[in-house]
Amino acid sequence: MIIVLKPGATEKEIDHVMDRIKELGLTPHLSKGQERSIIGVIGDDRLIANQPFRAIPGVEDVVPILAPWKLAGREFKKADTIVDVSGVKVGGKKLAIMAGPCAVEKKELTVGIAQEVKAAGASILRGGAYKPRTSPYAFQGLGNEGLDFLAEAKKATGLPVVSEILDPRDIEFFLAKTDIIQIGARNMQNFELLKEVGAYDKPVLLKRGLSATIKEWLMAAEYIMSRGNKNVMLCERGIRTFESQYRNTLDLSAVPALKELSHLPVIVDPSHATGKWAMVAPLAKAAVAAGADGLLIEVHSNPECALCDGEESLKPAKFKELMKDLKKIAEAVGREL
Ligand code: PEP
Ligand code: MN
């Protein structure tokens, strides 16, 4: 941490700042310049970050040297994290493709889609049992019964499953019936929910908030990790911008940015990013080319009758075609599918 002093800071003011730093158990190093002076602080940045140092007379700014996220950051851990999802590795050379319906509907339909995505090469089945819908009148999901159907689909195909949690009171269902707990965009800063999933070692897929900055997103990951759960994966799913031609704007810059700042696996969801099935394949390819560790793609055998997000769901045949194209892109960037 560096504390930048105002050009006219008096000796008395500087001494007071030095004393405040020492009171926190940190070591200040004063460097006097012609124009202005700065104080370098050795010790845990967080002790100062939590204090209103800018309120002290003579202080102009407080500049952190280390990132505010510790556990999620590359500064803390250089090597890429590989999350083990019931035997499927996410974050290594092989790409993790999570595919399935937006919402779990009928049991047979869910098992059928699971078989189709598995045959096309997906490694994880997705499906929402508790749905965070904008309208309270829209289909809210089957709830716990939906998790049972996912468990049936897992039994039939061997695919681990990912599903979104909305309420910390449902945690036991998710621990028993899913392999990854998804925190959706709308709950990225639901801190109590983050703390709850942080208390176990069950892998967590943390989606980017609707208008969240990368910093806010990594701090949300930090909430989970600081509770002990290190199995966090980040999922870019588009952000709100002025553009209204598609549902959201897929921020592919987030992929290399996160790779530099964090060691956590990065997944891209082109389905919720666009809301349009015809845009899913081009953006899925771009995401792999940009260095994503995996994709989250909505697939439905009959999108026009889907209870949720049919407009952005790929039919199994289109998904299969996409997987073939992705294989070539993966090879070109040194990855496997
Ligand atoms: C989902 O993946 O089912 C979902 C609701 O996505 P998001 O939270 O990104 O909107
Ligand atoms: Mn959806």
Topology:
Blueprint: E1 2-5, H1 11-23, E2 27-32, E3 37-42, H2 45-49, E4 59-63, E5 83-85, E6 88-90, E7 96-100, H3 107-120, E8 124-126, H4 144-157, E9 161-164, H5 171-177, E10 180-183, H6 191-198, E11 204-207, H7 214-226, E12 232-236, H8 254-261, E13 266-268, H9 270-274, H10 277-290, E14 294-298, H11 316-332
Parallel strand pairs: 7-8, 7-14, 8-9, 9-10, 10-11, 11-12, 12-13, 13-14
Antiparallel strand pairs: 1-3, 1-4, 2-3, 5-6
Brief rundown of the structure:
The chain has helices spanning 11-23, 45-49, 107-120, 144-157, 171-177, 191-198, 214-226, 254-261, 270-274, 277-290, 316-332, and strands spanning 2-5, 27-32, 37-42, 59-63, 83-85, 88-90, 96-100, 124-126, 161-164, 180-183, 204-207, 232-236, 266-268, 294-298.
Relevant terms:
binds phosphoenolpyruvate; 337 residues; binds manganese (II) ion; 18% strand; Alpha-Beta Plaits; 2 domains; alpha/beta; four-stranded antiparallel sheet; elongated; single chain; TIM Barrel
CATH superfamily of the largest domain: Aldolase class I
Approximately what portion of the residues adopt beta-strand conformation? Answer: 15-25%
How are strands sequenced across the largest beta sheet? 7-8-9-10-11-12-13-14
Helix content: 25-40%
Examine the secondary-structure arrangement and name the CATH architecture of the largest domain: Alpha-Beta Barrel
Which whole number gives the mean pLDDT?
96
Give the CA-CA distance, first to last residue: 43 Å
Largest sheet: 8 strands, parallel, barrel
Q: Report the count of strand segments.
A: 14
Shape: elongated
CATH class of the largest domain: Alpha Beta
- The rounded Rg comes to 23 Å
CATH-assigned fold name of the largest domain: TIM Barrel
